[in-house]
Specification:
Layout (H helix, E strand, L loop, with lengths): L1 H7 L5 H14 L7 H23 L7 H17 L11 H17 L10 H19 L3 H21 L6 H17 L7 H8 L2 H10 L4 H5 L6 H12 L10 H9 L14 H10 L13 H9 L4 H22 L5 H16 L1 H39 L1
Helix pairs in contact: 1-4, 2-3, 2-4, 3-4, 3-17, 4-16, 5-6, 5-7, 6-7, 6-8, 6-18, 7-8, 8-17, 12-15, 13-18, 15-16, 16-17, 17-18
């Protein structure tokens, strides 16, 4: 389907959309068995299937090739990167709930859209996720487990209800999705793929209402930022020669790993593709200097490497697979770091490497440091217990 659409202009209609949507649903019908599969299904429905349906409905000039490309990449990640599994982890449940509440509360208290305080909620949320992991592993009580999830719902939902301005919908979806996925992974809540798909298919419409106060139905989604990676990548596919001196994609690869470094510290930090694309392809006439747009997983590689974009995209897929397996291996028995990585893959498919790094590492870096400390404390405690037992 990718070749037919991208090279032969075949299948860019309801027939092609139907084939790819069924391929997605059938290929990930067992998505509930892992957080990665669930995130892939979520991304496929909300960022590809529904936006493509709206774009075809308004007769936009897009290729369904990028939907096919997503399925190919997602299947590779699922087959080779899926390795998270729950494991026994002794921890007193009476301590985890208060720590979750304090971590989330402190994150919200110091939240700011500017400077170093921007990461406060990411860090607090990540630490709370670790203790939700411990809570689930240390008890089989559904009451305790759901109480932990409830703290996330109350804190994030409360912020969205009273303070949220409608921007960053994917960010808050990821904040909310991670604790729910953890609960599913431990079997507290049963996953129903039909119910899941039905609910998330409505989210693009709900998100548009939350952002703009109105929806305009299926046609409105074609103008939403959720559809921009499809429209912009499609436009770039047929007009890549119009980009003059786009720079090096190595800058975006650098941002993938170091995008979390504040610009105040790294004065020469490169700009992300979502800003550069406006300057070099769309133009800034009628928009502010701060305006940026999402070009998607494939678009940024196509922007910098019109001929060999697929090599860079394949390498990125391999990097994510390796990163996920490393997290699963070195963070065990914790599975929460893997789930945190998974939920930020939604941003990766929507906004590319720089956007992913600007969000994922703010959560993962403090989380990894905290997990290392907890594991060492547990090891030291076990050694002391063994020594005391041997001395008896």
């Amino acid at each position: 389907m990718f070749v037919l659409s991208a090279l032969l202009d075949v299948g860019n209609d309801y027939v092609g959309w139907t084939v790819l949507t069924l391929t997605l649903l059938l290929g990930f019908h067992d998505a509930g068995r892992s957080s990665l599969g669930t995130v892939i299904l979520f991304t496929g429905v909300t960022l590809f299937a529904i936006p493509y349906l709206s774009l075809i409905y308004v007769d936009a000039q897009v290729q369904v090739a990028w939907f096919a490309g997503f399925i190919i990449v997602a299947k590779a990640m699922f087959l080779f990167g899926d390795s998270n599994r729950a494991a026994a982890m002794p921890a007193p449940s009476s301590l985890n709930l208060p720590i979750i509440a304090v971590a989330l509360g402190a994150g919200l208290l110091f939240w700011s859209d500017q400077g170093i305080l921007q990461i406060s909620f990411y860090a607090g949320w990540a630490i709370a996720m670790v203790h939700l992991d411990r809570l689930h592993a240390s008890t089989t009580s559904a009451v305790w487990r759901l109480a932990g999830v409830g703290l996330f719902v109350l804190s994030i939902g409360g912020y969205m209800l009273f303070f949220w301005g409608g921007y960053g919908r994917i960010i808050f979806i990821s904040f909310m999705l991670a604790p729910l996925l953890l609960t599913v992974r431990y079997g507290t809540v049963r996953f129903n793929v039909f119910l899941f798909v039905g609910v998330i298919a409505l989210l693009p419409f709900v998100g548009r209402v939350l952002r703009f106060g109105w929806s305009d139905g299926l046609a409105g989604l074609s103008e939403d930022s959720g559809a921009s990676p499809i429209t912009l990548t499609s436009a770039l596919w047929v007009n890549s020669s119009s980009v003059i001196n786009p720079g090096s994609i190595l800058e975006q690869w650098t941002l993938l790993f170091l995008g979390w470094v504040p610009r105040e510290i790294w004065a020469g930090k490169p700009l992300g593709i979502n800003s550069s694309f406006v300057d070099l392809f769309l133009g800034r006439q009628g928009v502010s200097m701060e305006h940026s747009t999402a070009i998607g997983y494939f678009g940024e590689h196509l922007f910098y490497l019109p001929t060999f974009w697929w090599v860079s995209a394949a390498l990125l897929t391999a990097v994510i697979i390796v990163l996920r397996r490393l997290l699963a291996r070195y963070c065990a028995p914790f599975i929460s770091p893997v789930i945190v990585l998974d939920v930020w893959l939604i941003t990766l498919f929507w906004g590319g490497m720089a956007s992913f790094a600007a969000r994922a590492w703010f959560a993962l870096l403090p989380m990894l440091a905290y997990v290392v400390v907890l594991k060492r404390l547990t090891t030291a405690s076990n050694r002391a217990a063994a020594t005391a037992l041997a001395a008896r």
